[in-house]
Amino acid sequence: MIFGCHVSIKEGYLGAAKLAYKKGASAFQFFPKNPRSLVVKEFDHLDALGCKEFCEKYQLQSIIHTPYPTSLTPTVDKRNLTIQSIINDLSIADACGAIGVVVHFGSPIDTTNPLESYHLMIDMLNSVLEQWDGQALILLENIAGGSMGVTLEEHVQVRSLSLFPEKIGFCFDTCHAFASGLWNGENTKELLQKGTTLNYWSEVKAFHLNNSKYNTGSGKDRHANIFQNGFIKETEFDDLLTSPMFQHLPFILETPKDDGISYEEELVQLQQRWGGLKEH
After folding, report:
1. Overall average pLDDT of the 123-147 stretch
2. Is residue 227 one of the residues assigned to a domain?
């Protein structure tokens, strides 16, 4: 199993890869720049190349997460800045050898015309991807609650309606799916079947592996550690994490680091439970 965690780029992109490896991860996620800003970053290409080469040497997979202000349904004044910021993120991902850039599904902009939000989102994706010829993908992430981005059908449809579906994949967040009610822990087989029928799982490139601090259907995006303080049971993760469809994909932790367990400890627990690592 390919388990990993989110790491800091305080010591650069190569430093992030080395930190992930030191923690015992075989995959990692990082912000490409200041997570609270859309300002385009002039990044160190040699540092990014070092990251890519290190990952190739030690067989590490990586993904990037866009900064918090990124929205695929932005206000008019933020449109161009957002487009350039996402292209910047894709460039950094490509230089670092990352699979792609995780972007949250869009949010509603007009309660009287729900389709307007989807139209804007598809237009934003087209505007970004018509300027992008690299290998890194846009990875649309499912939402924890609300009226958009919850169902698999939405993700598949947005991808299919874009002009560049081959440049779009998905990142599936387990906490978000549980919080939204898409996955309640007991309907895993049905969820897997639906995703297969819709050709959703075939385009998933990474998982955010998180438990939930609130029960299913709460709509609250509050992550919990996999083995403690969460509403998703270990047995409810079983069918998801042991599916042959996902054995080659990275499962990346975004769990709390202040609940008495470190990423290093949690990664060992994951391997002991699902990765075949024997407990000593």
Report:
1. 97
2. yes
